[in-house]
């Protein structure tokens, strides 16, 4: 019989720990009118697309705004000002990056119907490191991706990754680094089971670097996987209980709870599985 011990993960939002990478970035930009004149005092809101996390501020005399210490993820920036129509734009925040966006107001009363076809254009992240972001929503929507004791779903999202000889290979090599909230996991000798110490259901975002790293990562590193655990901002004092069973006395069970206030969030998870 093979058993796995229960794993408890209790991540709290915004914990500052010295590490090789961070899980924060910033978002800056300018709001202006149709003649590209800056707008003073425009109300700008930054909201996470997958949770209730939100921040807001007013633009300065140059129409500028800056949000700092933003957890990585997908966000929507919305700006409003008297006399203009509200404007919004999506942005992806990655580790140690500072996307710059321009929000152009349209004079209120002007009616326009715009049909956008194709994928939305995200703001640049000012980074030379090729990065892939996998969200918990994508994991939930991919059959088998949330399976316990395996992160093999990585190969579904990250280019040039594949599993051979029971090991994850990336960019032609198998030496990769694993981090949680930017903190390296020691002794990540992952072979038969890919990422067994990480539960896919507890991931908020998986950030993958595939080149042009800092020297701290080493000169023979083929990939860096930064796991950002869930925080609880997507829940309102809610719990989930998942019970599954299959052949060979297999079970895969999990209970997780989370909640938040305006400034604080918590998430706790307990998992157990067995098979013969």
Notes on the protein architecture:
This protein is mainly β and 276 residues long. It has a domain at 24-104: Immunoglobulin-like (Sandwich), CATH 2.60.40.10. 4% of the residues lie in helices and 43% in strands. It is built from two helices and 19 strands. The protein has helices at residues 136-141, 154-157; strands spanning 2-9, 24-32, 43-48, 54-58, 64-71, 73-80, 87-93, 100-104, 131-135, 161-164, 167-170, 176-180, 183-184, 203-209, 223-229, 238-242, 245-246, 250-260, 265-275. The strands form five sheets. Strands 1, 16, 17, 18 and 19 form a five-stranded antiparallel sheet that branches. A five-stranded mixed sheet has the order 9-14-15-12-13. The longest helix has 6 residues, at 136-141. Mean pLDDT is 79; it is low at 1-19.
- Architecture of the domain at 24-104, CATH level 2? Sandwich
Total helical elements: 2
Shape: globular
Uncertain parts: 1-19
Alpha carbon gyration radius: 21 Å
DSSP strand tally: 19
């Amino acid at each position: 019989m093979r058993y796995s011990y229960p794993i408890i993960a209790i991540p709290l939002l915004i914990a500052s720990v010295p590490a090789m990478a961070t899980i924060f970035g910033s978002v800056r930009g300018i709001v202006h009118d149709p003649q590209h004149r800056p707008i003073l005092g425009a109300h700008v809101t930054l909201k996470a697309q997958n949770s209730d996390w939100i921040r807001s501020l007013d633009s300065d005399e140059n129409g500028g705004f800056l949000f700092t210490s933003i957890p990585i993820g997908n966000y929507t920036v919305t700006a409003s000002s008297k006399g203009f129509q509200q404007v919004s734009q999506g942005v992806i925040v990655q580790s140690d990056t500072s996307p710059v966006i321009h929000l152009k107001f349209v004079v209120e009363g002007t009616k326009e119907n715009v049909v956008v076809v194709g994928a939305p254009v995200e703001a640049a992240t000012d980074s030379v490191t090729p990065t892939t972001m996998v969200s918990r929503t994508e994991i939930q929507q991919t059959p088998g991706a949330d399976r316990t004791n395996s992160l093999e779903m990585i190969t579904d999202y990250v280019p040039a990754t594949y599993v051979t000889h029971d090991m994850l290979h990336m960019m032609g090599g198998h030496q990769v680094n694993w981090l949680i909230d930017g903190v390296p996991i020691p002794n990540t000798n992952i072979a038969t089971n890919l990422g067994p110490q990480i539960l896919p259901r507890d991931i908020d975002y998986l950030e993958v670097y595939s080149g042009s790293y800092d020297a701290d990562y080493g000169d023979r590193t083929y990939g860096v996987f930064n796991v950002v655990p869930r925080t609880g901002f997507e829940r309102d004092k809610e719990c989930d209980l998942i019970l599954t069973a299959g052949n060979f006395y297999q079970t895969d069970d999990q209970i997780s709870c989370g909640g938040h206030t305006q400034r604080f969030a918590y998430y706790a998870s307990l998992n157990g599985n067995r098979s013969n």
